[in-house]
Amino acid sequence: MFTISIMDKSKKSVRTYEHINKITYSDLIDEVVVENDAILTCNFPIDFDLHLYSNTGNYVISCDVIGTLEIQKES
After folding, report:
1. Angle at alpha carbon of residue 3, lines to 50 and 43, rounded to 5°
2. Which residue pairs, CB below 8 angstroms and at least 24 apart, start in 39-47?
3. In sequence order, which residues have a C-beta less than 8 Å from that of residue 4 and are 6 or more positions away?
4. Count of alpha carbons within 13 Å of 1, Cβ hemisphere only?
5. N or C terminus: which one in the chain shows less Cβ crowding within 10 Å?
6. pLDDT greater than 90 at residue 11
7. 55 vs 53: CA distance, rounded Å
8. What would the pLDDT profile of 25-72 be if each residue is shown by its tens digit?
9. What is the C-alpha to C-alpha distance for residues 60 and 41, in angstroms, rounded to an integer?
10. Distance from CA of residue 47 to its chain's centroid?
11. Is 39 helix (H, G, I), strand (E, B) or coil?
């Protein structure tokens, strides 16, 4: 599982999402699904909405707010 931190474009706030096990986004042609260790090596676009999934919640992050994306593997 992974902890995802997103700093908004204004660089005024960081939102953290824990225990993420899947991230999806639509690239206008297909829905892209990234799971497991592929999350660490994927070059996620920040110009598409990202959908984050965990066992306890689902989150949609609008591309309008994504400034930077940080991914860390949980131990």
Report:
1. 50
2. 39/2, 39/71, 40/2, 40/71, 40/73, 44/69
3. 16, 17, 20, 23, 52, 69, 70, 71
4. 11
5. C
6. no
7. 7
8. 998 899 999 999 999 999 999 899 999 999 999 999 999 999 899 999
9. 21
10. 12
11. helix
CA distances from 54 to 12, 47, 51, 66, 72 (A): 26, 22, 10, 19, 15
Three-state DSSP state, 64: coil
pLDDT given at position 25 = 96
The number of CA neighbours under 13 Å toward the Cβ of 12 is 2
Residue with tokens 């909405």: 49
Measuring CA to CA, which residue among 1, 4, 8 is closest to residue 25? Answer: 4
| CB-count exposure of residue 1 (10 Å: 0-12, 13-18, 19+) | middle
| Residue located via tokens 């609008």 | 62
